């Protein structure tokens, strides 16, 4: 089968091979024919080494497709079912799951160290234990979440990561208060989803911050009340909040510099939500005095900060009701053979989300 492979960490281009085999099928596993997958910035971060991932590997973790085969013990899906690929499945038994914090379950992370694929040259890993830039993938049963047939593959794929992460940051982690002021720094697919989440919660002012003009224009269409480049954030803060700072600031870039900017633009007693996935050696510096004196809440948000399966169901309900726009997030479409075009679209910021049709 075909799959896009990164052979060494740091390479900028993927190679599409047709001799890749999905491996590992057996009890508790599901084999999925991938139909659509989104390109998330985390894929780029894994390719350049910001996020740890053994190589060679098949990127992609935001996908949807059809079940081809189920292993012994799998009861929740059957061949022919449409599924969303969940890259962070919950085991249901660990302390985090028992506390109701299933997104902190480490079972899914352990999958990243087990090869999902094989070529003649040896084993190939799947990013985050999945690897959806492939025609087929074998995943743990918990990674295959049933999706209704009326949800198109491309929409279902977005729900698998970016939309769930951004919406959940506003709805679950921050629990944005109606009438509040919000700033979202970084307006790709995840940031735009955070904008939509803040709008759903009734935020009065939503300021989108991004250096790319087309993304700022998109943010206004999705519910932002103002959109500015980073150098104009201070003016927006003065205009919207009288210089006090925003009630909520979402950092959706994953860098300490923008997290520091987000902190400085959060009002005293306000909430900074860290959504972007950054490097392990990128340190955010805060003084003990400002932490004490400003009493700003710093809330990291992993995968939307809630139960993943319930978040999927909520997103589908909101989409059906026309309360969130998911189709509008897909600004570009490519075939698997054109995967490197999608990478360029992400790097230049010209795409909110590129859908790879497989």
Question: Could you please describe the fold and organization of this structure?
Answer:
The protein has 358 residues and is an alpha/beta fold. Helices cover 29% and strands 26% of the residues. The chain has helices spanning 41-47, 95-98, 107-111, 153-159, 162-174, 189-200, 213-221, 233-241, 256-264, 288-294, 308-320, 339-348; strands spanning 3-5, 15-17, 21-22, 29-38, 57-58, 62-70, 82-85, 117-119, 122-126, 136-140, 144-146, 181-185, 205-209, 226-228, 246-251, 266-274, 297-300, 330-335, 353-357. The strands form four sheets. Strands 4, 6, 7, 10, 11, 18 and 19 form a seven-stranded mixed β-sheet that branches. Strands 14-13-12-15-16-17 form a six-stranded parallel β-sheet, with helices on both faces. Helix 5 (162-174) packs parallel to helix 6 and helix 5 crosses helix 11 (308-320). The chain is globular, with a radius of gyration of 20 Å.
List the helices and strands and how they pair.
Blueprint: E1 3-5, E2 15-17, E3 21-22, E4 29-38, H1 41-47, E5 57-58, E6 62-70, E7 82-85, H2 95-98, H3 107-111, E8 117-119, E9 122-126, E10 136-140, E11 144-146, H4 153-159, H5 162-174, E12 181-185, H6 189-200, E13 205-209, H7 213-221, E14 226-228, H8 233-241, E15 246-251, H9 256-264, E16 266-274, H10 288-294, E17 297-300, H11 308-320, E18 330-335, H12 339-348, E19 353-357
Parallel strand pairs: 5-9, 12-13, 12-15, 13-14, 15-16, 16-17, 18-19
Antiparallel strand pairs: 1-2, 3-8, 4-6, 4-10, 4-19, 6-7, 7-11, 8-9
Helix pairs in contact: 5-6, 5-11
